[in-house]
Structure formats: structure tokens, C-alpha cells
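Let us practice reading a record.
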Amino acid sequence: GLYLRDSQEKPMLGTGDLEFQWVGQPDPILMDSLTAGLSDRGPVCAAVFDRGDWMLLLRQAGQGEILGYIAYRSLSTSQLFAALGDTELANRVRLRAAGNTLLITALSVVESERFKDYRQLLLCELLARALEEDCVYAVFCPHDRKVDDKLEDVLIRTGFLVREEGQPIWETDMHAPATLIQNLETTIQDPLSRNPRVLAAIRRSHQSLQRALARLYPGSLLLTLSADIIHQRLLEKITAYNNVPAVPTTPRVLGENMCVPYGKLLRGKTVPNTVTKTIHTDRVYSPDLSESVMEPFPYYAPISSQIRTIKSFDRPVILVDDLMHPGFRFKALDPILRREGVPIRMVLVGVLSGYGKDLMDHWERPVDSVYFLPTLRQWFIEATLYPFIGGNTVRRSSSPVPGLLPGINHILPYASPVYQEPCAREAVFQLSKACLEGALDIIRTLEQEYRILYGRNLTLARLPEAVILPLCPDKGTCLHYDPTLSASVYLENDLEQLLRQNQ
């Protein structure tokens, strides 16, 4: 029963169905097509052309249908008055920004997709590019002076605030952003991961989590990055380094370099036309959470043996991870890689911070990334915040339920969250509450759809049939889980325990 719901072959990384297009200043034909559905298209078009806005488009892959656009400009401090048209307002923004400012003047998307937030994708892609170009402040000031409810919700979830009373101007500080990697969809087993009700529950939980995270650092940017987009960009980079197509070919022609994921990103997936072999690692905490070490994932060979296996392929290696900021995983692997003489072609990560780049330069290793963030205040991996869905492993002599590892989520009531900067107690409580309620919503939905699909109850013992790598929140050695009960029962109890702490 170990692989009851697993496919016989590893899933292959796909090219994705969305793409971004940076078009610079749009031509009149493109602008007419973008604003065709607007009642006041004239003023918007005129403002875009007169003020020299640039455009970022979101469209179907392969130059398909345009799904949305965002208009923007990058301003120096001396250009704020010309852009905002108010001396006092420009001066107040200048004092808050103290550097280059990203001015966003229009954001519009089609409403055809229920489970993908096109507004968030466009906004965060632009903000990520602006961070790379040393923008330290962002202002959303629409040409038409209108912000509907859906757009307002996205701005709030991204950390924007209204600082000017009576004006539709939203601002956020980009000096030290927090980052959320949105990866919950990748933790659910197929076919439940494609179920509409499950996807709806994931989206509800994700938006609630964003609102709670934005309250940790009010007025500061919360940059949400989609794991789907990161996977797509990693595929493009890996195949480019390997000089092979990004889609499978017949007959298969393998590139020279070998792809070696060593974190949670791309674990269990293969890259087209590329030899792919994972180093299965796990960050394991002591029971009191005072320390953590890098160990092989349970039931896998020691890390040194896995690396010797990689060496036996006799290929240059592209190492892949989700984040390079503290460098915990790579710091543990690098000495073994050097000792075994594994040739490193590139270390490729989804998100690279300025501190992470400094570490790689110090270790004299080449590094590339999908996103580069010069400064990073705090990072969150979405799945690790949800009990029974993800987390970090805790060292125990036995598993609480066969097939489920003991784990810890760094939220209340399981552990006291530790952040790089102090946060308000109420904000930490609301974040923990949002995580527990979100996990409960998703687990309940999974239980309902699993029962419809397979005609059985989704108990703890069967949870791996719905969640790829589930963990049981660690309760010590005296309290035990009943494998015949569902995870939602335990989440309800943990939520009650959390609410008691705020009485």
C-alpha cells in the first residue's frame, strides 16, 4: 500500500500555459485591443501615451490570448511632481520613498479564470522586476482614479496602504520585502490537485493567508511568487544551460548537464531531455526546536552515498533549490560535493537574495535565479505553514501514524513563531488562526472529494493518498494519534486550543 495512489512514472515538468511579455511603450493598435472593454478608454489611452507608460502583458503561452496588462513607470525623486501633479503629495511620497519609485497607473485582467489570480500574478511579477532594478517604493495611482473591490483586495494582500486621505493612491515600502512562495497546489495528489472544489479551497486559504501576512509588517511589501511560474522559468533555464528543447523529443536526446534538485522544489519531477536525479534531504529539528541539522530524507541512503551516486553519472551538475538566503542546505552539501569531486555547472534557485548571493560568492560557486531580491526581510513557504499538509520534521524514535512523519509548523499553538523583526502579538495570532482555518478548509474539502472519488473515508492512515508528503504535528511521546480518525478532527481541536490562548 506504499504507492496506492502514486503514478508509475515521475511527472515531467511542463512549459506552463501562461507567459509574461514586456512590451515597453505600447503602440496604438495594441492599446486599442487592451482597452476595448473599458467605458472610459479614451482618457486611459491618452494618459498612457502622453506620460510614456510601459506595459507588462500576461497572455496564454505561445503568444496566445492577452489575459491582462499592467502599466507602469520607474521614477526618480525629481520626477515625482511631474507624475503626480501635486507638489505636497510628491514631497510626502519623496520623503517616504527616499529612492527610486515604481508608479503603477493601470491594471486590468479578464475574469474568465476562477482558480488563478491574474491580478496578483501581474502585480507581483512587476514588483519583482522593480526590486531587481533598485526601486524601493511603489505607488498605485490609476489614470482613471478608480479601484474596484477585487483590485483593492489584491493591493491589500500585497501590502499596499492608503496613506493619503480622500485620494485613490495606494503605497507600499519595498526596502525590505517579505516573500511568500505559493506552492500549496504542488502538495496535493493527482487527481485531487485538479478538483475544482479543492482548488477553490486552496485559493480561499491562500488569500486569507496573504491578508494575515500583510498585517505582520503593515505598509511593507509582501511579494507572492507562484511555484508554477518558478517551475516554468526553471525549466527554461535548465534546458537553456543544457542546450536542449523544453519539450520532450522523439527520439530522446539528453543534454550534457545533469539536473539535481536538493530541496523541496522539483522533488519527484523530471526535466525534459535532461538526466534528473534528486538528492533527498530533510531539515530535522530537535524536539525542543533549539537546533536543526540536515539529514537524508527518511528511508533514503546517507547524503554522502547519494552524492557518490550523482558522481557516478560522470556529468556536470545543475543543482536546484527553491531559495538561497540562509544557505542552510547548500552549506551542508557543499563540503561533500567538493570531497567527492562533483563538477558544479550552476546552482539554480527560484529566489536569490542579496545575502544568498554573497554566500555563494564567498563559497566560490556559480549561482543563477528566477527572481533576485537584493534585500529580504522574511520568507514563507506556503505549504510549511499548514498542519498535516507540510512543515518541518521533528526527530522522534517512531512515527505518530505509520506513513506520516512527526512535524512542526512554526505557528501557534505548536511553536512560538520567530521572525527577523518583532511583530505585533495580535498579528502573529491572526496569522496562526488563518493557517489553521485554511488547513481545516482544505482538509475537509479533500475528505469530501476523496469520499466521492473512492467511496472511503480519508483517515490519517490514508492521508498520503491525498497529500504527497503529509506530516503529523508533533505532540510529544505521550499523546498519540488515532489512525482511524480524520485529520480535520485534530485540526478542530488545535484551533480551539489556539482560541483559548487569546481569551
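A brief commentary: The radius of gyration is 24 Å.
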